[in-house]
Design goal:
Elements (H helix, E strand, L loop, with lengths): L19 H10 L3 E8 L4 E4 L9 H9 L9 E8 L2 E9 L5 E9 L7 H44 L8 H4 L1 H13 L3 E6 L4 E5 L8 H18 L3 E3 L12 E9 L5 E10 L7 H21 L7 E2 H13 L8 E7 L2 H8 L1 H16 L7 E6 L2 E6 L4 H16 L3 E3 L2 E3 L3 E7 L6 H18 L5 E3 L5 H4 L3 H15 L2 E10 L8 E9 L5 E2 L5 H6 L3 H16 L3 H4 L5 E5 L2 H5 L1 H14 L6 E6 H6 L1 H14 L2 E7 L5 H5 L6 E4 L1 H6 L4 H16 L3 E4 L5 H9 L4 E2 L8 E2 H6 L1 H8 L1
Parallel strand pairs: 11-13, 17-18, 20-22, 22-23, 23-24, 24-25, 25-26, 26-27
Antiparallel strand pairs: 1-2, 1-5, 3-4, 4-5, 6-7, 6-10, 8-9, 9-10, 12-14, 12-17, 13-14, 15-16, 19-20, 19-27, 19-28, 20-21
Length: 731
Amino acid sequence: MAEIALNLPQHLTTARPNLDPYGHLLRMLMPRAVGIAFYDSHGKALWVADGYDGPDPLPLVRAALTDVPPATTDRIDGFSQAYEGAPAYVFRLRDGGGDVIAIATLLTRDNENRPYSYVQHLVQPALECLQRELDARSSLGELSRDLRERDDDLDLLLRIAPEEPDGAAQGDELGGLVQACVDHLGCTLGALVVPERNVAICKAPAGQKPKVEVLTRIHRHLLNWAQLQRRNLTINRVRARPVELPPFKILSTPVRHASGRVVGFLALFREEDGADFAPRCERLVELLSRKITTILQNNFDALTALLTRPAFETQVRALVAGRTGSHPDCVLYLDVDRLHVINDNFGMHVGDELLARIAELLRRKPRPGALAARIAGDRFAVFLPDCALDFAQQIGEMLRRQCAELSGMRGEGTMQVSVSLGIAELPDSSNPLAHGLASAEIACKAAKDRGRDRVELFQDGDQSIMRRHTDVLVIKRLHEALEQNRFVLYAQPILPLGSELSEPRFELLLRMLGPDGEILPPEKFLSAAERYQLLPAIDRWVVTHALAALRPQARALRGRGLSFSINVSGPSVAAEEFLEFLESSIRGSGLPPEVLCFELTETAAVSNLTRADHLMQRLRLLGCSFALDDFGTGLSSLAYLKSLPVSVLKIDGSFVRDAGTSQRTEAMVRAIAQLAHTMGMQTVAEYVETDELRSRMAGLGVDYGQGFAIGRPVPLDEVLGDLALYEAMAR
C-alpha cells in the first residue's frame, strides 16, 4: 500500500507517505474498506490508500470539522452515513486537551450498513495507535515551532542594535525598532507614542502606508490605560466597549522612564481575522519597550527632553547620508543671554525652568523634519533640512521673538530673557554637520559681541565674524587680568543644616573684572583658561591673594574652627612645583593651616590620583584639610575615596536639585551621607537654592549646605568684616 499522486483531486496530491503501517492495519481490520484516508485538523490530506477511485471523501471531512461535539474522555469519536450509495465511516482523533488533530475516513462498497459503534470497536486498536503517533508528532511540532519562534525573536533583538554607528538604522533607532516589530510579528500597524519626548511614530508593512487615523482615534485612550494601569493591554476579541475601538486586535505595552514612570506606549495592531497576540508576543514587546527606555535615556536630555548632542549628530548624519541629490540644509545655534544673571538673581531652579520653556519652543518643529538638541548647558542647536539661508534667518528671528516673550515678573524682580542665534549652511564636506555647527557657533558668538538678542548669519566673506572667535577674545582678557590684577575674590557661606553648633565655613570664588568693570563669573573664562593652559597661573593668583586677605585675621582665626576653601585645578595638582609653592606660601602666611581647606573635583583627583594623594598627604602634615567637590559625578568614586585623605564630600548640585522630585536621587544622597559618616567624613550639599531643599538635605543626613538658601556669594573683604554675623547664623 503506497501513496498515490495521480488521478486524484488536487487536495489529495499532498499526502505524506509515512503513515503506511496504519493504513495496512486498518485494511486488515476492515477488509471491506476500499477508501482509507487520513486528514489533519485543517482538512489537508496526510495519507491516502492507493487503488481507490471512488468518490472524494473531502465533504465528509469538512462536515466532521464543522460540527465538532464537545470533548469527552474518549480520544476517538465520529459518525457514519451513506455516501454516494455506500456506507462511509468518519473518525475524529483528539489530543489530550480534546482538540481534533486528525480525521480518518473509511469508505466501503459493502451493501450492508454496519453500525458505527461496531466498526469503531473493530478498528479501535489501529486508530488508537494512529492517535498516539499524531499526538506525539503534534507536540514535537509545537515544540519545534516554539523554538523557531524563540530563535526568530532572538534574531530580532540582535538586529535592532545596528552594527554601523552612523548608519540610517542608528539615526532612527526608534523608527527602526517599531518597523521591526511590525515585520516580525506580522502586524498591520505599529505605533510608538511618547508625548513628553515629542515622539509619535507609525509604521506599516513594507510598501504600505500607515493607517495613522487608527492611532489618532485611540492614542489618548491607550496612553491613559498605560499610565493608570501600568500593564499590558491585549485585545484579541473586539466587543462593544465604552470606548469605540477600531476593528483590530491590539497589543499595547507601557513605555517607562528610567525612574519607572510611564511616559508612553508601544502598540501593535492586527486585522480582526488575524492571529491572536500570544503571551510570547507580550514578552517580546515588553523587552523591546525596555530597549526603548534605554534609547530615550541615552538620546534625550533629562531637563529639556530634547536630543542630546551625540544623538543629534548621529541622526543628522544619518538623514544627510540617506538622501540623494543636493539639498540646502542649515543649522541654527542658540545661546541664552546672561543665564548666569538669572541664576544669580532668581536661583538655579528658575534658570532650569527657563531652559525647559525654550526647549518647548524648539520642539514645535519650526520646519518639517527639523531636529532640535540641547548641546550644552544653555546652548541649543536646530537642524533645518532643505532650508535656504534666508528662510533659516526668518526662523531664527521668530525663535528670538518667542524667547523674548518669556520675559516677565518673577517674585519681586523682572526676569529679562533674550537669546543670541547664529545660522550657517551645511557645507559640502566629509563632515558637514561638524563644520556647519562650528560656523553657526562662531556666528552666535558674533551676535553676542554685537549686543546680544540678535540673529547672525555665517558667511565666508564676513571676516568680522571670523575675527570674533570668543576664545581668542577671552584669552586676551585673561592675560590682561592676570597682568593687571583684575580679579576679585568672593566668599559663599557653608552653614550647618542641623541643630548642632558649628563654626561657619566659606568657599572662595573667583570673579574677573572686565575692562568696563563688569564682573564676569567663572563660566565665562575658565573654559578658555583650561584650553590655553592658564589654570595653574590663576590658581597661584587665588592662593596668593586669599592668603594675603586672610593674613590680618590670623590671630582672630586661630582656634576658632572657621575654614576657607580654595579650589585647586587638575593641571595644578599634576605640577610638582605647585605643591612647593603651596607649602612655602602657607608657611610664610602666618595663618593657622587648619583654617585652610583645599577643594579638588573628582575629575582632578582621578586624573592625577598619585599626584593628588601626594599633595594631600604633604599639606595634611601641615594641618590643612581637603574636600572632594562634585562628588557623585565620577565613574569610580568609591574606588579611590578610601585611599585619599579627604575630610569633606561636596555632593554635586545635580543630585541636590533632583532630590526633591526623584526618590532614586534622594536615596543616593542619603547613601552618600551615610557612607561619609561611616568613613568619618562630613558632607556638604551644593546648590541648596530653596528652603525646601534645605530641609530635605537636613532630613537626608547631610551636614552642611551651600547655595542661595544658605547665603549668596559676597566679596571676601565684606565676609571678613562681618565674621561675627556669620557666627551667629551658624549658631
